[in-house]
Design a protein that fits this description.
Blueprint lengths: L1 H4 L8 H7 L2 H23 L6 H24 L11 H15 L3 H14 L4 H13 L3 H13 L7 H13 L22 H6 L1
Helix pairs in contact: 2-3, 3-4, 5-6, 6-7, 7-8, 7-9, 8-9
């Protein structure tokens, strides 16, 4: 699968759009599409619409956009996001979870941010971060983190827990004292998480 990632270099902006979901990648891909479309229309569909120097300028601009973006993307090609958490990430998650359970919010958030730098698609860590942000009263950040997780593929295993957290945010409850949920609802949502319990 890894060699196919390099096919994204064919279209400007696609490596960053496809592999990272970057808005700048989308803007570059759209700019290239528009310039290519205009050049094709002016050359083959309505050839008499504009003068030849203008058509040559369009093709030159299109070629320059393609060349510059391909060279820059090849030099800074985004690395693959790891699909599986490494041992270091598991250890960080265990420390973050322990700090969360001890109500050491600052240490828990620090460990979770380190973990998400290491493994940005870790849905369990994203959910714990959203829960932590809600519990410390940072509602806009918590809502943003949880909504982002609910839209991503890595949040699929945590849909129920995400919905509960968003409901708590909407109800304005800072903690879990008035419902029967567990402090950390992470283990009940996915069977994939059971291996981490044993490792911790």
């Amino acid at each position: 699968m890894a060699p196919f990632r390099y096919l994204t270099l064919v279209w400007p902006g696609l490596p960053w759009l496809w592999l990272r979901g970057s808005l700048m990648g989308l803007a570059l891909a759209l700019a290239f599409a528009v310039s290519l479309d205009i050049a094709v229309v002016a050359t083959w569909i309505w050839p008499g619409l504009v003068e030849l120097p203008f058509v040559l300028g369009l093709w030159t601009a299109t070629a320059v956009i393609w060349l510059v973006s391909t060279v820059s993307a090849a030099s800074a090609f985004p690395s693959a996001i790891p699909a599986v958490r490494a041992a270091e990430a598991d250890a960080l998650f265990a420390r973050a979870r322990d700090a969360y359970l001890a109500r050491d919010w600052l240490r828990a958030e620090t460990r979770l941010r380190e973990l998400l730098d290491l493994a940005p698609t870790d849905g369990e860590a994203q959910l714990l971060l959203g829960t932590l942000l809600r519990r410390v009263g940072r509602k806009p950040e918590a809502r943003q983190a949880l909504e982002k997780l609910s839209r991503s593929d890595c949040g699929a295993a945590w849909r129920g827990a995400i919905a509960k957290e968003l409901h708590r945010l909407a109800a304005g409850r800072p903690d879990d004292t008035d419902d029967d949920s567990v402090v950390l609802p992470l283990r009940e949502e996915s069977t994939a998480a059971h291996g981490r319990t044993a490792a911790a």
